[in-house]
Amino acid sequence: MLSFYQRLATGLCAVVAGALVWAGAFWGPRPLPLLSVPPAAVRFEGANAVEYTRVVAEEFPDRVTGTPPARRAAGYLRAEFRKLGYEVSSPTFSMWLRGERVQGENVVAWLEGESPQSVAVMAHYDGQLTSHGAAEDNASGVGVLLELARVLRQGPRHRGLILAADDAEEWGMIGARELTSLLKTHQTVAVLSLDYLAAGPAPSLEMNCMGQFAGYTPLWLRQLLVASGRAQGARFEQVTGTGEWIERALEVSAQDQGPLLRSGIPALNLATHSLKTEAVRARYHTPEDVFRNFDPAAFQLLGSTVEQAVFALNTLPPPAPGTAGDFQASPDRYLSSALMGLLQILGLLPIVLAACFAASNFAAEKIELHGWRFLEPASWVIPPCLAGLLLYALTGLNILPRFELYPATPKDPFLYHLPLALIAALAIVVGAGFVELRKLLSRVEVPPTPFGVRKRTLFLWVTIVALVAFFNNPYAMELFLGGFAYATLLLVPPRGAVSRATNAALLIAAATPFAALLYSFGKEIFLGWRIIWYLVLQAAYGVWSPIAVALFLLAVVLGVQLFWISVLQGDRDVANPLA
Question: Which of 178, 180, 194, 292 could make a disulfide contact with 123, Cβ separation 3.0–4.6 Å?
């Protein structure tokens, strides 16, 4: 454990850092610059977009990537774009879908401008295995795209125009990912993605800004869309503050802007906001998602806003680069990326200082820091890592049916019928690994480890995990591991019921953000407790990087050991707390 003066210094550091973080969060946000765009005389007709939506949903159902209906839908889109006077191409790509190699096809239309730069609008036309017409998701977006193609071909163009109907959005935004090279070649300054116009009235619009594994929509583009909506009488629902922090921590996008943001292309997704949320959720990805009750006024609201935004993007000077890290604290205020980075570092400082004190105490007590005593706590991560390698191997061999990136879509039976034989194989590897590791540890002569020394060792490992995670994604580290590191630092010797209860409360509180988000995510995509299996599938298909998986497993192993020695075992000296 730390000495009195070390605890005092750490406490003072935490107080000062906390005060600076509070001051920065309170006084640091700047007013968002008021961006106004001159109202454009829009020509978008919502009724036309509704009719396009009907054609796509009813005449081209079952548009699952790689199927004949999807190819027929792509042919219809090519014909419509050419009829409107666009140059058209259909780049194809190969991908995995439920264990089979299939071919996806994007449909790209473009008009040249005076400048080598361009503006792009896109909507995915593919559907899901669990749906039929896939009207709201996403024939509706394609309907708006085709009507925009009609109205945007007219008038002068300073920048070029790209319209893309992309494929395979449902399986990880694969079509959008395949378009990134083309968009960069055309120096695309911004991309507006259209996904999900809910049936019925739309009181407002909503934007989605989360990148896929990296990136977030820059403030200037968000502000431009808000201003464009204001010019056309539309109001936006925005995620700011805590919601934006969570999205930046997760970085698993659900719309086509995700891979574009990851590649550095400014992008966002636009949808309508419905007052009948539960009804929309009930229809989502089911045969009930049919062409019915679509409101032309809702299409007009979105279409006119996008037309206005394209008009503004076509005439405004190039935006200043380097603003993607700016954090929108509220609808009208933001924190600069530099200040946000400084506040995140301040939150980490007390943990790093305490780790330095803990490491120095090992030297003062003549305890070998680099010996087995230090490596042993982390060795317990080996069995679950072996199971992870087996999972990667089974996926590579297609024994676990492969998907290109994201697992099967929500409400797909694939996610509900758990492969018990595969799960049993993973469990056997973990169990056998722990048995063999326990045998190995029993043959290593390690003197009994007092609680204080054991806690310091585990705290050093927690700090290492936190630091690596911080450089990987500081938002995720502070959301999921910041509380864990501070809880580890605050654990007290378990010499009675009160101290054990205190330790248990600290560790449970540290795990609460992850548990709450897991529950929320499971509810959001209709999986409930099966969300745990969904996370395993995400790891198998590469949604989570091997570094992220290893950090998660190591954090779990360290948490179990901390709970064991500080709550269950008490103040007895032990060599191997899990043995």
Answer: 194
